[in-house]
Fold these 2 entries.
Entry 1:
Amino acid sequence: MIGIVWGNRPLYFVNGAPLYGYIGFGVIDRGTNVLQVRPTTLCPLNCIFCSVDAGPHSRNRQAEFMVDPDSIYEATLEIARFKGGGVEALIDTVGDPLTYPYITYLVKKLKRNPYISSIALETHGALLSHRLIDELDEAGLDRINLSIDTLDNNKAKILQGTKWFNIDKVKKLAEYIVKETNIDLHVTPVWIPGINDDDVIEVVKWAYRIGAGKKWPPATIQRYNIHKYGRKVAGVKPLKWSVFWRKIREIEKTTGLRVSWEMHEWKMEKRKRYPCPYRKNNVAAVKIISPGLFRGEYIGVVAKKEWLITVYGGRKEIGHTYYVKIINDKDCLLIGKIMGEI
Ligand code: SF4
């Protein structure tokens, strides 16, 4: 990894394996036919509700990452092959995939692969342009999951924490995607209770009106959530899941428009997981390779079977190897605590 400075923090380029085990970049397998593909952590926006504290105004991030396109392609292919094909590559990221300079190259490569059945990406749309949309269409992108949270330009600037963000432009480009390309559009507003209650309904009505959902569902309302390092909207508590789902049913009843979907409607199914080489409570030798995305975090490589791990536990030296106890292994996104230096 070589770092250059992006904003106030270093940007590391990640080249080669391993690309499994870390939430910030690489490939994530959650036991279905959808693989999360994360080639970049960068984002140009500063959404006030951002659960991953992305963007230029981030307070908790200490580093950013970008992965070599051939390396992330190989890592995606390895798991897609293991799963037997019919896999969706969902380029979702802890930032915005459109910051990735190799995005059309990556889509094109994935599209040519027989184990990948569809390619989608998630974005707030700030970096979309007619030219980029045409290039992505030509590269074979199947779907854009567009997260816009209001149709009001002034409100969008506040929600996205960015004065130059122009929701009118994003709307026009979204309509272009639906009408002029083979790319499908799925619209996914984040609902922040008390802040954009009516807006999310207007966004959903607009998505249906313009013809989103050519092959996949047209719209989903996302629940505002709080994460340890994420940004919180002052005075707003996330709805309990039971309350959220009750309100979603009410919205569906009053509008007559569906905003929640079953797995099969996403062409999603459970699949065997790529084998996870480590389990909770294992103690392993871990070489620290860089600072992690967030302050207090390091990224290490578990020495025996090359796998990434997030490491906590005080200031550590890059290049040194430590004994680490694995304290979390959910979806094989390993988190460990330093026990001592080797
Ligand atoms: S919510 Fe998405 S678009 Fe907004 S700052 Fe976070 S990563 Fe960027």
Entry 2:
Amino acid sequence: MFVVRWDCFSFALVFAVSFILSRAEVCNGGRTSSFVRNDQLSNDMPLDSDVFQVPPGYNAPQQVHITQGDHLGKGVIISWITQDEPGSSLVLYRAENSELKSSAEGIVLTYKYFNYTSGYIHHCTIRDLESDTKYYYEVGIGNTSRQFWFITPPEVGPDVAYTFGLVGDLGQTHDSNRTLTHYELNPAKGQTLLFVGDLSYADAYPFHDNSRWDTWGRFIERNAAYQPWIWTAGNHEIDFLPDIGEVIPFKPYVHRYHVPYKASGSTSPFWYSIKRASAYIIVMSSYSAYGKYTPQYKWLEKEFPKVNRTETPWLIVLMHCPFYSSYVHHYMEGESMRVMYEPWFVEYMVDVVFAGHVHAYERSERISNIAYNVVNGLCTPIRDPSAPVYITIGDGGNLEGLVTEMTEPQPSYSAYREASFGHGILDIKNRTHAHFSWHRNQDGYAVEADSLLLHNRYWTVSEESAVAGM
Ligand SMILES: *[C@@H]1O[C@H](CO)[C@@H](O)[C@H](O)[C@H]1NC(C)=O
Ligand SMILES: *[C@@H]1O[C@H](CO)[C@@H](O)[C@H](O)[C@H]1NC(C)=O
Ligand SMILES: *[C@@H]1O[C@H](CO)[C@@H](O)[C@H](O)[C@H]1NC(C)=O
Ligand SMILES: *[C@@H]1O[C@H](CO)[C@@H](O)[C@H](O)[C@H]1NC(C)=O
Ligand SMILES: *[C@@H]1O[C@H](CO)[C@@H](O)[C@H](O)[C@H]1NC(C)=O
Ligand SMILES: [Fe+2]
């Protein structure tokens, strides 16, 4: 099955010449970090941990989290859960510099999963907010109310500086808590978190004990109630368990984590897009149909041409399963989707693709592998200035632990790889430059274990170089 192989080592001699030629274009080999990490499995934090505490008071809102609520960043979806009774789905909010309180009415829903019944899950979208403004908001009106705040992004525009955090495969272990703490205390100060899938890992428990979705919601509240987390669905969100009658994929996830998919013309919460500051972010679903003629394909086909790089220079794609990963675990799982969509990534000059799934960190060179046509043998990734950088950031720290086994030798498409837990920061400076850094949990908060000054694919096409690494 050489159709989908990257390294042509198993190829017949007839391919050897083209192999050597294309190989030569990717000559500076990547780095495998020799950092010695603690790779012991970490258990989930116990149920009585501080991070899982239920807020006091009758029917107090818990698991408060926010995400973008429209296409432009002037809306916010506020979600929370009440346990005792439905209570109110009202949100009261006001801008920091104003006494005038506005209100918005949301919806409340519940779901059952085997013998688990959820609390009352509230979702309320507030719209038409001022840009670049701090808002206070209050939920739980009528019973125990709680107040939080967020800051809206600046108006969409080409040179708007903005800082995104990147976390994937977080789970709820002590390592997860370290990752979140390092993200919070990183002096780079992420303003919005791009989450690349695999949230709670509740499916690790018998009958996918959904109370572990609740503990996860309480764990992330300390950050997700104050800044939007942009959601991507991973395989641990599927929760497909026909043995106990649970045959609707993604049931807990779609009830708990709403996203503004309709605002981008999508028909499904699993793929959608948002604009935020100078970025256009496309979220894809590795676990929904993506072949030709499928709803996801048809949406993406229309979506890429809509991106106006004069308005939003930075084109970012999020997905769960990486196209390029050189770890042994999950090796080539993203291959069929890569074959489908990589030509568009190159055609539309995507700047960077973030994925999770593989519990480690890896950054690729700008490479593409789209020349192959079944007979020409051109199946090796080559350097391609129009191609994205692929970053695997599945190192949030869940109970499955790190994957440490790597394919050897390190393939030339791989620029840097390390099996340590951590998070990423994408610090967009202006239309031409963005600084990406990766931060491992063992280091001080400001330390960049790997970093790259990204040059925008539309506005510049000059070479990039890694600026740190240790
Ligand atoms: C999680 O991290 C926070 C912030 O560092 C800390 O206050 C808390 O005690 C930690 N909880 C656990 C269970 O490790
Ligand atoms: C659900 O069923 C399992 C298996 O019978 C049991 O261990 C668990 O306690 C039940 N949970 C609830 C909420 O009833
Ligand atoms: C809780 O709030 C709801 C909605 O405001 C109200 O109808 C209900 O009476 C309150 N319950 C208690 C016990 O105060
Ligand atoms: C792209 O965006 C710029 C800046 O907002 C605008 O002037 C231009 O008309 C847009 N182009 C298209 C084709 O919509
Ligand atoms: C964009 O940001 C980069 C990196 O901070 C800086 O070197 C460059 O001068 C900036 N360009 C403009 C036009 O401000
Ligand atoms: Fe995964």
